[in-house]
Amino acid sequence: MSTGRVTFIAVSPHVSDSLSWRATRAIAEADVVIWTGGTVSDGVLRHAPDHADVVIDDNGATHSLLPFYDLASRDGFRVIHIRSDDSTRWDTLFDHVDRCGELGLPTELIRC
User: Fold this and answer.
1) What is the mean pLDDT of each run of 10 residues along the chain (112 residues)?
2) Which residue among 56, 67, 69, 85 sits deepest, i.e. has the most Cβ atoms within 10 Å of its Cβ?
């Protein structure tokens, strides 16, 4: 069984198709792609593989995303959490990272 992981990608709310290589690769390897905090870019989501579940969550509250982190921990899924709000709310992001740490999930942060 593969080890699950969660990658947080912080993008500008005005992002078009231009992502870093690391961000594009992470999305391409995802089992679940979650987009929170702003306008969804089809150009970014086109990097997700066909088998990936795409979840649009306007709120992005930790409690609403816990099932995805649990799934990553239990079943080895790769979860990508794309945040595109105007000012990334670091306190909320750290809540997510802390929860992943409690589950033993490695995390990564990519800024675009």
Assistant:
1) 85 71 95 85 89 86 85 95 70 86 94 83
2) 69
**Rounded-to-10 torsion of CA 20, 43, 31, 106:** 30
Cα diameter, the chain = 38
- How crowded is residue 42: how many other Cβ atoms within 10 Å of its Cβ? 7
The Cα 91–Cα 86 span in angstroms is 14
pTM: 0.88
> Are the CB atoms for 61 and 83 separated by under 8 Å?
no
Q: What are phi and psi of 35, to 5 degrees?
A: -115, 125
pLDDT at 57: 82
Spatial CA neighbour of 8 closest among 75, 72, 74 = 72
Domains and CATH numbers, the chain: 5-111 (3.40.1010.10)
How far is residue 21 from each of residues 71, 76, 89, measured CA to CA in Å?
26, 23, 24
